[in-house]
TrEMBL record:
<dbReference type="InterPro" id="IPR014729">
    <property type="entry name" value="Rossmann-like_a/b/a_fold"/>
</dbReference>
<dbReference type="InterPro" id="IPR006015">
    <property type="entry name" value="Universal_stress_UspA"/>
</dbReference>
<feature type="domain" description="UspA">
    <location>
        <begin position="5"/>
        <end position="146"/>
    </location>
</feature>
<keyword id="KW-0963">Cytoplasm</keyword>
<protein>
    <recommendedName>
        <fullName>Universal stress protein</fullName>
    </recommendedName>
</protein>
<dbReference type="InterPro" id="IPR006016">
    <property type="entry name" value="UspA"/>
</dbReference>
<dbReference type="Pfam" id="PF00582">
    <property type="entry name" value="Usp"/>
</dbReference>
<comment type="similarity">
    <text>Belongs to the universal stress protein A family.</text>
</comment>
Length: 150
């Protein structure tokens, strides 16, 4: 069996410890493979069905966008501090599941998607569904789930 080289690695970050662990490991994998890390944050677009809430909704979107930009910049800074420069930040809007499983892997020719294991317990994962489990089932490439460190 031939060894897989992962040149284009996608990792989603959302501010959680699990996502941060996946990001750190993505850098390690990319470094070993002379690859590139695409670090993504997906801002869920809020659609308010009632009239009159547009300004509030836009304010929330602006705040989430600003937080996402800061998070991506923090990731880039971490990478630079660890002598890794082949990194691209991606800020996108919509469904995190769809973006991580389909849209971004296709657009950036991703070889490996890395996701953090949900911090939810089994019942919570079953009830809400997780981005990680969706990505595992739908991604067109290999997926590595980074588990919580003991």
């Amino acid at each position: 069996m031939e060894s897989q080289e992962y040149k284009n690695i996608l990792v989603g970050v959302d501010g959680s410890d699990q996502a941060q662990q996946a990001f750190v490991k993505a850098i390690e994998v990319a470094r070993r493979n002379n690859g590139k890390v695409y670090v993504a944050n997906v801002v869920q677009q809020q659609i308010t069905p009632m009239l009159g809430y547009g300004e509030i909704n836009q304010s929330i979107m602006d705040q989430e966008t600003e937080s996402a930009k800061e998070l991506l910049e923090t990731c880039k800074t971490y990478a630079r501090e660890h002598d890794f420069t082949n990194i691209e930040g991606i800020l996108t809007y919509g469904s995190a599941k769809q973006a991580m499983a389909r849209d971004l892997p296709k657009k950036y020719h991703i070889d490996l998607v890395m996701v953090g294991q949900s911090g939810l317990n089994a019942v919570e994962r079953f009830m809400t569904g997780s981005v990680a489990s969706y990505v595992i089932r739908q991604a067109p490439c290999d997926v590595l789930v980074v588990s919580e460190e003991a």
